[in-house]
């Protein structure tokens, strides 16, 4: 069976699944890395942190437009499928390779399972939403993280027999790595005091590709850094744009704001675990903060993970609302909500049991 990883947010989803599958000698998981993310700190570091050997196969697709990335992955993975003929292709998340590999497999009649199925932002300007919709149409098995995802799929006319609520696999990674995350010294070595700083991550095209929006965001972050220390590991897309729009140097000179290279899983989680709040446009971080009870301000008009707002610590936020909301959070005590059903570190076990039913019956 192939487990497909392409970009940073995929690796912590295939990690626990690969380890769980290994427990059954009748199952064989082969990790296929499409190579959408290739920098050490966006890829290799995650494999090392999650105790994964390097990918068995790397398609080295690299960067490009959506059409290029999707098209190159489709062709390259299609060829690989013809050679390898796996019994099942597992795709995760919502990146371009999720769709491309699901499509290549479906065209060849190879069964496809989608882990993290059913999430919807109902915003088709997000490239990930297109990937989610099409992948879920193609997949034979839809493993969902929460009940709202099941409802979304049923509304789209997907046969309930294909849907299985398994929970949130990212919580498996977090619990699997918790001892190492807690023992890590990244926050300490950066001089960050527990609960006295915010973690910032921004990378979505909608947040960082417009010069006007990005400079407004940077101005607000610089003002905020006078009240609360900020630590900002900068995604390559964001760094490129900050440099292009002439914002990088002034940001680097801001006291109270630490700019970092992207961090691999354990050091990133270490700074998140110790933070007072997160400011982000990421998908995964909304869930991790909910689970950890850390307030999260998501700089987006919508979310495909509404359960993090209704049941968790997440709030959707416009740039101009950020300062007010941060102050509100700082004035109120932290409250840890109960995690949604099956966000318990046992999702990989449930998925593996389902794979056993599918392949070994
Ligand atoms: C992709 C995913 C997004 C996910 C994000 C997490 C899609 C459509 N988007 O967005 O869902 O939340 O990953 O990071 O699949 N780059 C490097 N080094 C790398 C990887 C990328 O320098 O290791 C540069 C690329 O050259 C490109 C930019 O970063 O200029 C963006 O990379 P890309 O893979 O196109 O999309 P992301 O914005 O990372």
Sum up the structure in keywords.
361 residues, alpha/beta, Rossmann fold, 2 domains, 7-stranded parallel beta sheet, 6-stranded parallel beta sheet, 13 strands, binds uridine-diphosphate-N-acetylglucosamine
Characterise the protein shown here:
There is one protein chain. With 361 residues, the protein is α/β, with parallel strands linked by helices. The chain folds into two domains: 185 residues, Rossmann fold, CATH 3.40.50; 155 residues, Glycogen Phosphorylase B (Rossmann fold, 3-Layer(aba) Sandwich). The chain is built from 17 helices and 13 strands. The longest helix is centred in the first third of the chain and has 19 residues. The structure holds uridine-diphosphate-N-acetylglucosamine.
């Amino acid at each position: 069976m192939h487990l497909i990883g392409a970009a940073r947010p995929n690796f912590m989803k295939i990690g626990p699944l690969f380890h769980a599958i290994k427990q059954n000698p009748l199952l064989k998981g082969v990790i296929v890395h499409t190579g959408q993310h290739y920098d050490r700190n966006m890829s290799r570091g995650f494999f090392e942190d999650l105790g994964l050997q390097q990918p068995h196969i790397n398609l080295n697709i690299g960067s490009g437009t959506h059409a290029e990335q999707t098209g190159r992955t489709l062709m390259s993975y299609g060829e690989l499928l013809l050679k390898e003929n796996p019994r099942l292709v597992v795709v995760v998340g919502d990146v371009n390779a999720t769709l491309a590999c699901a499509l290549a497999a479906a065209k060849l009649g190879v069964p496809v399972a989608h882990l993290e199925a059913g999430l919807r932002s109902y915003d088709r300007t997000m490239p990930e939403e297109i990937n989610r919709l099409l992948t879920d149409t193609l997949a034979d098995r839809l493993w969902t993280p929460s009940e709202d995802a099941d409802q979304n799929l049923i509304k789209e006319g997907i046969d309930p027999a294909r849907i299985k609520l398994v929970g949130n696999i990212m919580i498996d990674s977090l619990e699997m790595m918790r001892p190492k995350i807690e023992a890590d010294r990244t926050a300490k070595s950066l001089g960050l005091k527990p609960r006295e700083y915010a973690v910032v991550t921004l990378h979505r095209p909608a947040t960082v590709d417009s010069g006007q929006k990005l400079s407004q965001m940077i101005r607000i972050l610089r003002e905020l850094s006078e009240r609360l220390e900020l630590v900002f590991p900068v995604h390559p897309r964001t760094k490129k744009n900050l440099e292009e729009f002439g914002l990088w140097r002034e940001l680097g000179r801001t006291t109270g704001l630490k700019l970092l290279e992207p961090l691999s899983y354990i050091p990133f989680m270490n700074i998140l675990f110790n933070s007072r709040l997160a400011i982000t446009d990421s998908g995964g971080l909304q869930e991790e903060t909910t689970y950890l009870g850390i307030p999260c301000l998501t700089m987006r008009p919508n979310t495909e993970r509404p359960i993090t707002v209704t049941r968790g610590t997440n709030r959707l936020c416009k740039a101009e609302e950020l300062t007010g909301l941060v102050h509100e959070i700082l004035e109120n005590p932290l409250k840890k909500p109960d995690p949604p059903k099956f966000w318990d570190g046992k999702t990989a076990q449930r998925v593996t049991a389902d794979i056993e039913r599918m392949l070994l019956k």
